[in-house]
Design a protein that fits this description.
Shape: globular
Largest sheet: 8 strands, parallel, barrel
Number of helices: 9
CATH architecture: Alpha-Beta Barrel
Strand order of the largest sheet: 1-2-3-4-7-8-9-12
Number of domains: 1
CATH superfamily: Divalent-metal-dependent TIM barrel enzymes
């Protein structure tokens, strides 16, 4: 059976990634502080006690978007069908409007606990498309895949943008566009981020991620999710809205957590850019 698109979030909405150190502050935050939360299902499936209770309370207040960490879509090992069954139950239980995963791999006879790069080859496109289709069939929904940050390029038959677009078409899936990853990769690998952005088909882009990074050197950025969003990434987000139209956008922060009001100020900056942009993609966009 062909997966049906999940229910949509409003285009103009801004969310925050739920991390356990943020849960208590989010529970105490005023209504409307964030429009949705995003969780890694692996961190919450089967969790009880005070953490499970906090998650359940937040999930009652906010739509829950899910962003996976461990499917290893590009990996050589067979997909973990038992985990995917548990994942489906979690998505259905919390009525998650979106599930996304990374264009990377992270397991082979055990988890690597890192996101390894995929060669940009036709063979890799077919491999990914087959596995994404298997996941979509098992979940009964279309998924989004994220452009991952990478620091080594093991083999490239094609540019990254051509690889990403080929996967989207071959798998008939959607894209989670990580704007910070796009900026990091463009700097590290010497390509034009705006060229990449303008080559994306707006109809395939489901939602956006935003995060901070660490500047190791002028030509080496590290995707840390541990700092405030940098000015060039804000500018690229505004350009994304101009090309794609407005999309739901999530702020990620994984460590070095500031007080919640500091993160909410960044969420409000997302809302301000959304308010200033056209909701739909321009007519000339493909």
């Amino acid at each position: 059976m062909r997966p049906q698109p999940p229910r949509a979030l409003p285009a103009r909405c801004a969310g925050l990634g739920l991390r356990r150190p943020l849960a208590a502050a989010l529970l105490a935050a005023p209504a409307g502080a964030v429009d949705f939360i995003e969780v890694a299902p692996e961190n919450w499936i089967g969790v009880g006690g005070r953490h499970g209770k906090a998650f359940a309370e937040l999930a009652e207040r906010h739509p829950v978007v899910c962003h996976g960490l461990s499917l290893s879509l590009g990996g050589p090992a067979p997909l973990d069908l038992d985990f995917i069954a548990h994942l489906k139950d979690f998505l259905d239980r919390w009525n998650a409007p979106i599930f996304s995963e990374h264009l990377s791999w992270c397991a082979d006879e055990g988890h690597l606990y890192d996101l390894a790069p995929i060669p940009f080859t036709e063979e890799a496109v077919r491999h990914l498309a087959s596995r994404i289709a298997q996941v979509q069939d098992a979940l009964g929904r279309r998924i989004a895949v994220e452009n991952a940050s990478y620091y080594a390029a093991p083999w490239q038959e094609m540019p990254e943008i051509d690889f990403v677009n080929a996967v989207l078409v071959e798998a008939d899936c959607e894209l989670l566009l990580d704007v910070n990853n796009l900026h990091v990769n463009a700097v590290n690998h010497g390509y034009d981020a705006l060229h990449f952005l303008h080559a994306l088909p707006p109809r395939r882009v489901r939602y956006l991620h935003l995060a901070g990074h660490y500047v190791q050197a002028p030509d080496l950025l590290v995707d840390t999710h541990g700092a405030a969003v940098a000015d060039p990434v804000w500018a690229l987000l505004a350009a994304a809205y101009r090309h794609l139209g407005v999309r739901p956008t999530l702020l990620e922060r994984d460590f070095h957590f500031p007080p919640l009001p500091v993160l909410l100020a960044e969420v409000d900056s997302v809302r301000a850019l959304q308010a200033a942009a056209p909701e739909e993609a321009p007519a000339h966009a493909v």
